Amino acid sequence: MSASELPDELWRRILETGIHLSNLSYRDLCCISITCRRLNRISGEDFLWYSLLSSDFPQPHHNDPSSASTSSKKKSLYKIRYERDRERKRLAHRRAVLRMESEVAEHRRKVQELELQLAEEKEKMKSAVVELSNLRRVRQASVALNVWQPDVIRGRQKQVVEQCNVPVDSRINSTEMELRLCRQQIEGFDKALRVEVRRLEAAKEKLASVKYHPLQDNNLAPSPLGTRKKKLKSSSNVS
Predict the structure, then answer these.
(1) Is the pLDDT score of 123 beyond 70?
(2) 177 and 105, same structural domain?
(3) Among 20-24, 191-195, 199-203, which is the least confidently predicted range?
(4) How many CB atoms lie under 10 A from the CB of residue 228?
(5) How many helices (H) and strands (E) does the chain have?
(6) Measured in Å, how far apart are the chain's first and last C-alpha atoms?
(7) Confidence band of 97 (pLDDT split at 50, 70, 90)
(8) DSSP structure class, residue 38
(9) What is the predicted pLDDT for the residue at 218?
(10) Using alpha carbons only, what angle is made at residue 222 by residues 76 and 50, rounded to the nearest 5 degrees?
(11) Where does residue 49 rank: exposed (0-12), middle (13-18), buried (19+ CB within 10 A)?
(12) Measured distance CA(10)–CA(64) in Å, rounded
């Protein structure tokens, strides 16, 4: 017995069993509906679409205004529910992308802030190193004043010492302390920067995975339930 010789009741039972066993989706039913006039008529019957509606959207239908009219076709109700669910998923996906983009922007802001603080501390340390070097030369000059030297050299060293209004040893101690503090700050900023960069990279990877979510194609694609009529006309002569 060929497939065309099967009675309608047997076809109904085959399709119904496929839906109950989750082996037949709405896409499959739409594909079956464009094969011939007979299967188009059978696959559009309410009880099949009601089974799909109950299986894919199990929430109670009596609270849904779209299912209030008993004269409405279950296939139309399925299309309405499908498009609502697709829009809900699209919006949820969009919210997830926005949250991740905000997180990436926040990590990037923190990285830039830490880089700026690190650069400022390095500049402070560089200035402290230069100042410490100058103070040590001043101390050497003050020591050299007590040693016999030619008057020209002695005059230059005396001029260097006189330019320093604050005791040299005190300034050297404070500059060395500032230098140690700068090194500690640089070490802390550098460590925090490495951590924040890792967090930024992880957030960017997560954002990329969210942007290419499998639901994206379904969300952007038109509903297959509304694109079958033209195909049906071109294939109606098969039966």
Answers:
(1) yes
(2) yes
(3) 20-24
(4) 16
(5) 9, 0
(6) 16
(7) very high
(8) H
(9) 46
(10) 25
(11) buried
(12) 33
Same domain, 115 and 168: yes
Which residues of the chain form beta strands (DSSP E)? none
Nearest to 70 by CA among 93, 84, 50, 41: 50
Instruction: Indicate the pTM of the whole model.
Output: 0.59
The answer to whether residue 236 scores a pLDDT higher than 60 is no
Give which of 57, 102, 138 is closest to 49, Cα–Cα: 57
Most confident of 6-20, 54-68, 194-208, 217-231: 194-208
CB of 68 within 8 A of CB of 164? no
Residue 149 has pLDDT above 70, yes or no: no
Amino acid letter, 41: R
Residue with tokens 């960069």: 197
Q: In a 3-state reduction of DSSP, which class is residue 183?
A: helix
Give how far Cα 140 sits from Cα of 127, 136, 171, 184, Å.
20, 6, 14, 29
The mean pLDDT of 120-125, rounded to a whole number, is: 94
DSSP for 144-155, please give it: HTTS---HHHHH
> What are the two backbone dihedrals, phi and then psi, of residue 101, each rounded to the nearest 5 degrees?
-65, -40
Number of domains in the chain: 2
SS3 13: helix
Query: Do 79 and 102 fall into the same domain?
Result: no
| Domain span holding position 80 | 3-65+72-88+222-238
Q: CATH number, domain at 175?
A: 1.10.287
